Each structure stands twice: as C-alpha cells, then as structure tokens.
Amino acid sequence: MSELIEIVDSLENKVSKLLHKMDVLKQENQSLKEELAIAEKSKHSLQRTIIEWEEKYNSLKVASSMLGSNEHKTETKLKINTLIREIDHCIAQLSE
C-alpha cells in the first residue's frame, strides 16, 4: 500500500512540474508573439520608408536629367516616351 502511495505522490509531483513548465512555456510563447508583432510592425514601417526613399530617388534622377545632367538622360527619355504612349492610348480609348 505504501508503494502505491509513493507512486501516486511521484505522479502528482511530475504532473505538478509539467503543469508549471506548461505555464512558463505559455508565458514565454505569449511574450514571443508580442515581440514578433512588434518586429513585424517595425519591418512594415521600414519597408514603407524604403519605398518612399526609392520614389524620391527616382524623382531626383528624372529632375536631374531634365536639368541637363547626362547621367540618367536615356532612362528619362524612355520614361517620358512610355508616359506619352499611355496618354495616347487613353485618348484613343476616350475617342471611341
């Protein structure tokens, strides 16, 4: 009978330890989820900033070539030609 009591006590201790470990892991998991959410927000913010800077850079390249810089002249001409084709296409659609 005493062996049975010892086995039950041992099982209770093990279950108690497992439950405590499970609670600790749940807390750690929640903490990691919050940390991940913060990191994702930061990532999205940085991606938006990168896109904004790329747009500013492209605008500056176009402005620079229009002011006489030869560095990005070909690229600007191609972009202007593309815009003109798009405008022509829109006008053709409106006149139909």
Sheet with the most strands? none
Strand-residue fraction? under 5%
The Cα radius of gyration reads 33 Å
Mean pLDDT: 89
Describe the global form: rod-shaped
**Category from helices, strands and their pairing:** mainly alpha
Estimate the helix proportion, in percent. Answer: over 70%
What is the N-to-C order of secondary-structure elements (H for helix, E for strand)? HH
Distance between the termini: 98 Å
Q: Which segments are poorly predicted (pLDDT under 50) over 5 or more consecutive residues?
A: none
Number of self-contained structural domains: 1
Protein name: Mis12-Mtw1 protein family
Keywords: Coiled coil
Q: Summary?
A:
This protein is an all-alpha fold and 96 residues long. Helices cover 92% and strands 0% of the residues.
Structural account:
Keywords: Coiled coil. The chain is mainly α. It has helices at 2-66, 73-95.
Explain the layout of strands and helices.
Layout: H1 2-66, H2 73-95
Search tags:
coiled coil, rod-shaped, Mis12-Mtw1 protein family, mainly alpha, 96 residues
